[in-house]
Here is the input.
Amino acid sequence: MEAVLKVKNLTVEHRSKKSSTTIVHGIDFEVMPGQCLGILGESGSGKSMSLKGIMGLLGQGFSVTGEAIFGGENLIGKSREQLRKIRGKRIGMILQNPMTCFDPLYRIDEQLGETYREHTNLSKVEILDKSVEILESMRIANPKEVLKKYPHQLSGGMLQRIMIGLAMSMEPDLIIADEPTTAIDAITQYEIMKEFVRIKKHYKTSMIFISHDLGVISTISDEVLVMNQGNVADRGTFNQIYENPQDDYTRLLVGKKKAVMEKYHQAVHKKGGIGL
Ligand SMILES: Nc1ncnc2c1ncn2[C@@H]1O[C@H](COP(=O)(O)OP(=O)(O)OP(=O)(O)O)[C@@H](O)[C@H]1O
Ligand SMILES: [Mg+2]
Here is the structure.
């Protein structure tokens, strides 16, 4: 089977007048159809820079080299305009802070409409129907009322649901979710993860799921890539990474999590009370 996205020797550099720094050091990975690649790594390890580099989301001063083959074409080297067309339609991106994805000055219906006008030929009425459908698909109550709201009138969890619904409604070949639950409270986080798992099962959409949280990665990923200082430290299935980490850095990440899980387990099972 052919990979949906095949990345080879991806390098991201930042150049300023005085110096040049390599942020991502020639990494390789691929995403297979219907599978989720989890990218794990501590803050600053280069997870976002790698994907932003591929998707043309880095500003001036960054140079991206290597290959990222998607639909038979190399995304690296494409113009900003070409990448903008691919983003949102064939590759859906869901970012950490949903607030920053919405323009505070426009109502939700106007913003969904704008995206639809850009990527489809739907009429005004069809766009409204589609918008209601998106909200319903993400199980948002009173969709017509919600569409009339401004972003600040909705919770982060609700906005993230709308982002996910919008991304999925374009029927993308690949979803890239970069820490989509980090800015959201724990209970909503759990609900959002359930949505992702449902989407993956139901639509068989290929995914890249970036997180520094081993628990989150474990719920959705088939394969895991561990990044450390712009390099791939480890890779394998979640169980391989968890049970038999090859790299010291992965061992450290897994060790920390195991300790937390152990403590939690002890607390829950403590005699004479719930212990939490
Ligand atoms: N604007 C910038 N200019 C130069 N270097 C940057 C810039 N932004 C980030 N970096 C460098 O790139 C490295 C990787 O950053 P990146 O945002 O990819 O980390 P990350 O793994 O996504 O972390 P997090 O979990 O916090 O999101 C950082 O350690 C930092 O040194
Ligand atoms: Mg990041």
Q: What stands out?
A: Strands lie at 5-15, 20-31, 36-40, 62-70, 73-74, 91-94, 174-178, 206-211, 223-228, 231-237.
